[in-house]
Amino acid sequence: MSRSALSYLPNNHLKFGIFHAPFHPVAENPTLALERDLELLQHLDVLGYDEAWIGEHHSGGYEIIACPEMFIAAAAERTKHIRLGTGVVSLPYHHPFTLAGRITLLDHLTRGRVMFGVGPGALVGDAYRMGIDPENQRRMMNESLDALVALLDGQSVTMKTDWFELKDARLQLGPFQRPRTEMAVACARSPSGALAAGRHGLGMLSIGGTNDEALAAHANNWRMCEEAAAENGKTVHRENWRLVTLMHIAETREQARANVEFGLEKFAKYFREIATFPIVPAGIDNPFEYLTENKMALIGTPDDAIEYIETLLEGSGGFGSLMQLAHNWADWGQTKRSYELIARYVFPHFQGSNLLRDTSYDYSHRNRDVFVGRAADAVQSEIDRYKDRKSGGAE
Fold first, then answer.
1. How many CB atoms lie within 10 A of CB 21?
2. CA-to-CA separations, 196 to 6, 144, 192, in angstroms, rounded
């Protein structure tokens, strides 16, 4: 790892995970697609990924997990180590009292492996169907978050807004994690998420691209998060800052590009036609060139991924976890292979997994002549000793 990249890593260690919407083309069997989503988390658990964040969506036909808490409960039964987060629960869609109770229950059922990610809601179509004005969503998120933090801290809450009311509300069950279930706030270009995270001293989930402009915006949002924390007597830490990007890895660049021909255009079409914030805007005929040339995505080899992640660390000023936006650009086999290559060859670079192995190997290489010579001397000594015994017996 380069010295510059190392300086941007909190605790000199980068965590890895996925941000899982998911994205499933409308032509395929949804039941089997959801089953593969669960199998993916099992695969990542075996590979040593640190965490997975599961989205909440209700319309559009592509992002088909409506309740991340239910999905996490199922995934927790199939996995052992990976932490599982709501990525995110859209707070304007839920009463904070029942939501706090569900998350607390999940915290116990997973023995503390759950993380509570929150946001205002990304799909305008979801809000429209519930009669929610998009202009109110961020205000509603902040009102709900104020209540949720107090409830999860065991406080009694009385609060009335134009969309929910709490009367002496207090949870009957405390959290499994102490002092509170881990929380994070989604943050794109708007500062609202950063300010909310800072006000409550929570983690931050940065979405919305990784080109140079986006990285500058993410860095500015983190600065605002730190300032808001200081103003409210809280502390935030970079190791609790997660940055979301797009990657697909193969053994060669040519193979990686061939792999994503399976599903990249379908992914781009969904964002052009349905999603609120188009990752691939209308008028882009070649999504591969657009995403890679603008540093929105890395489609290449493990070495390319290492270089790419180092630019993200430098451009942002440093973060604690890299989240891959799960996308199904490649077929199932190549998708799993991509995650495996990252775990095998990219993780160690940013986690120092092989530092002692490298030291041991280098030392052994430098001293090979000495070691080989001593081994040869030892063998010859045994040969000579045997000959001496034989010759003495003959006499």
1. 23
2. 29, 11, 6
SS3 string of 322-366? EEEECCCCCCHHHHHHHHHHHHHHHHHHHHCCCHHHHHHHHHHHH
Residue 341 φ then ψ, to 5°: -65, -40
CA gap 298, 303 in Å, rounded: 11
Going from the C-alpha of 45 to that of each of 205, 240, 340, the distances in angstroms are 21, 20, 11
187 DSSP β-pair partners: 206
The number of distinct structural domains making up the chain is 2
Distance between start and end Cα atoms, the chain: 66
In this prediction, residue 3 carries a pLDDT of 46
Report the distance separating Cα 264 and Cα 329, nearest Å. 5
* Tens digit of each residue's pLDDT (9 = 90 or more) over 306-337: 999 999 999 999 999 999 999 999 999 999 99
Q: What angle do CA 180, 319, 353 make, to 5 degrees?
A: 95
Does the model's pTM come out above 0.90?
yes
Dump pLDDT digits (tens) for 200-217: 999 999 998 999 999 999
Tokens coding 121: 């809601």
- Write out the H or E segment, with its range, that includes residue 19: strand 15-20
CA angle at 13 for the pair 12 and 19, rounded to the nearest 5°: 140
Task: Looking at the structure, tell me whether residues 372 and 275 fall in a common domain.
Answer: no
Q: Which two tokens stand for residue 16?
A: 């890895």
Contacts (Cβ under 8 Å, ≥6 apart) of 306: 345, 346, 349, 350
The tokens for 275 are 């999603």
Tally of residues, the chain:
395
294 and 372 part of one domain: no
Q: Could you count the other beta carbons within 10 Å of the beta carbon of residue 203? A: 23
Q: Are residues 294 and 365 in the same domain?
A: no
Give me the domain span that covers residue 381: 359-394
Beta-carbon count within 10 A of 262 CB: 15
Place of tokens 């409830």: 151
Alpha-carbon distances of 312 from 97, 219, 290, 320, rounded to whole Å: 38, 10, 18, 12
